[in-house]
Amino acid sequence: MPRRSPTPKQHTITINRAPALTLWATVVANQLGFDWDEALTVGRVVGGLNAHPRDKAPTLFHPRPEILKTRRQKLKPGESLQVGLLQRAVAVVRTPEGLRAMTKDTPIAPAGVQRYLESKFGDSLQAAVEAMVDLARSLPPEELGERACELYEQFRPELPEGAPLWGAEGTMDLTHIHALARPR
Fold first, then answer.
1. 106/96 Cα distance (integer angstroms)
2. 70, 73, 85, 104: which is closest to 30 by C-alpha?
């Protein structure tokens, strides 16, 4: 069943936590210097790793726009690096199309991630993107990188009492996400 766009009187979305985390990780990666297609692939990996233990490898590269630009220029086709985002390690490889996060040694196609988000958010996708971008842009990149996980925990969909943590839909309040954004 397609979800309707939030109207001025409707500020919530009913959604599973996995696509909400995928979208948030995408927005954060984009604000930290990945283009939108690159960010979609990174966001998908972060959303998929939610059920697995966190990998805090000491060799992680924590992206910031000015550093990512330099790393991107030095990375040769086929070379990869580990990116730390939302307390997760994401393998990113240089492809002819740009940087792509990988799963099982295969670069992820951004179009598939976009379709996934569209199917999960329905007509509410644009409103959710706008709220999350508003929040992400309210912080300097370094602070956003450090606080992204904490911020997600503050606005992630609230699950009904007794619902399983994995697979259940909850309510995500877009007004709350906008409220978390602080003026620069």
1. 14
2. 85
The CA angle 52-57-59, to the nearest 5 degrees, is 145
Run of H or E including 82 = strand 80-85
Whether 36 and 98 have beta carbons less than 8 Å apart is answered as no
Encode 129-158: b = buried (16+ Cβ within 10 Å), e = exposed: bebbbbbbebbebeebbeebbebbeebebe
Q: What is the SS3 assignment for 13-56?
A: EEEEHHHHHHHHHHHHHHHCCCCHHHHHHHHHHHHHHHHCCCCC
Cβ contacts of 52 within 8 Å, gap of 6 or more: none
What crossing angle do the helices spanning 17-31 and 36-48 adopt, rounded to 10°? 140
| pLDDT reading at 39 higher than 80 | yes
- Identify the CA nearest to 120 among candidates 12, 23, 7: 23
Cα(71)–Cα(84) distance, integer angstroms = 14
Q: What is the pLDDT of residue 66?
A: 61
**Residue 110 DSSP code:** H
Q: In the prediction, which pLDDT does 30 show?
A: 95
Contacting residues for 25 by C-beta, under 8 A, at least 6 apart: 39, 42, 43, 46, 47, 85, 86, 148
Q: Which residues pair with 91 in a beta bridge?
A: 82
Q: Which residue has the higher pLDDT, 182 or 142?
A: 142
